[in-house]
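$ fold --in a.seq
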Amino acid sequence: MSRDVFNFYYSFRVRYSEVDAQGIVFNAHYLTYFDTAMTEYMRHIKHDYVNEVKDKNEDFHTVKTLVEYKAPIHFDEIVDVCLRVKKIGTTSLTFYIEIHPHKKDNILATGEVVWVNANQVTHKAAALSKEIINKIELLEN
């Protein structure tokens, strides 16, 4: 996919602690990259995640992750993690993610993460708030 379909991205430099003996990012770190970008996305749309959890006793649970590795990412490389909400469900958000070299269009990795909003006492799915849906739709549309 082209970077043009994304309204949000988070850039960073790959650290030495994230690479293997070949100087390539170790596979498990891709999920950390995705998670960091999702956190920054929430910050960008001004969703007060910490207080939302405290006030409503609801939190997102990750129920699905998918990573497809397209090309290696190397130590000290600057990358952009491009992210968009692909689907808003009644209780869930599906994020589509691509990692690109900084300000370039070729894809290094793609992924998907599904979050389900859940009551922290019952651990049952809970409806997404209208507030978060509106904030996401404002950015994505």
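$ fold --in b.seq
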Amino acid sequence: MGLGERLETGYQPGWHFGNRAVAAISKETRDLVDGVAAEAIRVETPCGEGTMVWRIWGAGPPLVLFHGGYGSWTHWIRNILPLSRAFSVIAPDLPGLGCSATPPEPHTAGGLAKILIDGLDVVLPRSERLHLAGFSFGGVLGGHVAAQLGDRVRAFTVVGSNGLGLIRQPTELKRVPPSASPEDAVAVHRHNLGVLMIADPANIDELAIYIQSTNAPRGRVRSRRFSRADTLVRALPLVTARLDGIWGGRDATAYPHLDERARTLRSFQPEARFEVIEGAGHWVQYEAAERFNPLLTEIARSRMERNAG
């Protein structure tokens, strides 16, 4: 049986083994993530010397979600099931992140995009057009995927991505010390979430800490160098899909320069929508899921209907 034909539900058990912060996380929170994963169909496609992991929920028009740097599909944990009521939601672990294998060196945007495109050729028939949304580093790679796929991508929604060659605010992230207790490890992850990902400290809940603490140690592709350069903006002139953007109004990587992001997207497509969810941080789809989910649904439906017409 080929790699692309090996289908199963759930995900690899024990993937968080040895993570000190997990010892301080409740079973209820861990079960929540396991439960969402268990509802997915899992598909593996080639990546380096191993495989890239894709998960699929629901039925309907395909909506492909690329997560951010040092992340996994769990960056979309609050979006997948609501979106799967209207779409077939396809959320991979990007190469070298989450459960996916490390891609071959050198790590370039074009090379990583090629692995994603080859995987999409297995996950979706080439005749089927898709809507692509990429968060942060996922938007950077998404631009290169959309550029290479051409008309196969109906629309491309950029969610809080950098790589636009614009001013990016510095962030002071911490490392978990080798001697840290579970409580100390949680404190470091809480700090990093507050500095980079979530605007309101009250929204840094146990689920966010669990996701951060399990994703960050598995990051083997150094995504920051892509986001700090003009990696995305070099791809956008080649994107023929309809282009839109969603940003958190308090995105730590962009505030107070969101207007520059809007101008950049509209310099390529003047009709591009640029939606700001006020009060939300960089991880906008998590912190403001109740506003993000209907917004992305509406954008995706409108773009699909316009393309169909």
